[in-house]
Design a protein that fits this description.
PsdUridine_synth_RsuA/RluA; isomerase; 4-stranded antiparallel β-sheet; 11-stranded mixed β-sheet; S4_RNA-bd_sf; Pseudouridine synthase; S4_RNA-bd; Structural Genomics Hypothetical 15.5 Kd Protein In mrcA-pckA Intergenic Region, Chain A; 8 helices; 327 residues; 15 strands; alpha+beta
Length: 327
Amino acid sequence: MSKVEIRTVAADEADIRLDRWFRRHFPHVTHGALEKLLRTGQVRVDGGRVKGNHRLEPGQEVRIPPLPAPGEAAPPKTISAEDKAFARSMVLYEDDTLIALNKPPGLPVQGGSKVVRHLDGLLDAFGTGDRRPRLVHRLDKDTSGVIVVAKGASNAAWLASLFKGRDLEKTYWAIALGIMVPRAGEITGYMKKTVSNQGDRELMVAARHGEEGAQYALTRYATADEAGRRASWVVLRPETGRTHQLRVHLAAAGHAIQGDGKYVCDVPPLGGVSQKLHLHARKLVIPREGKKPLVLEAPLPKHMTDTFEALGFDAGMDMRAVEAQLG
């Protein structure tokens, strides 16, 4: 067993979840074992109790209790051939700095107490230890599309800084209920996290400027096509990266996303099509010094392709004029 030690969060570990940080430094400690250490207060941040989803800041001190040596712990689980093939099937692009994946709907990005299969766990398909890719941003479980993972600590720090700023261009496609008026514009406001009656920690609600926990959010949108007055194909560009931002903003505008059971509006959902969430991270443009920007695009998942066909939307149309309205 090791002794109690204090570790300082490094600059390139900004905004990383504690459970991910722990897995990076102590890969032999299982998720279940870490959760027990957190529940009993043996792992602390700056002397306080925290949960696994706590996001760390550079300079914070993490208390590490006595841990079994790697040889004393159970051997790490190996990824199955099936999961390795599945992970590889998601690859859209790969170079020396990153891997771009097309995440399917329903796949969580990170693990939890009741989550067994998740994207972070599938990254073992691409290497272990220092060779293992690192998450630098997230998508909601039911949102599909482009997500990138970094190769190495320096690339992770570079990409994480881009996602925290406004240098990346993120474009989403959604099926919104009803007709957006005006057809293009901005949705702004403040929002904060709250706890629902069902104990959902990820529920966002409208907030006032200056209110504790309130964060400003800005989304630009443009309508690509309409299906009568039933639904709109909306192209979205979040200028800020708040939790559930696009879902909250469209519902607040009175045009919730088809299949969203959490953020709803007065317009009834479409019948005769999939009730899965119709929100897709379609494109990501990453600036690169001395090179052309890297443009990553992900094809629609099947449930959205089927809905596009049912509504008469052409996913292959030239989007330049629509995206020009996003500024």
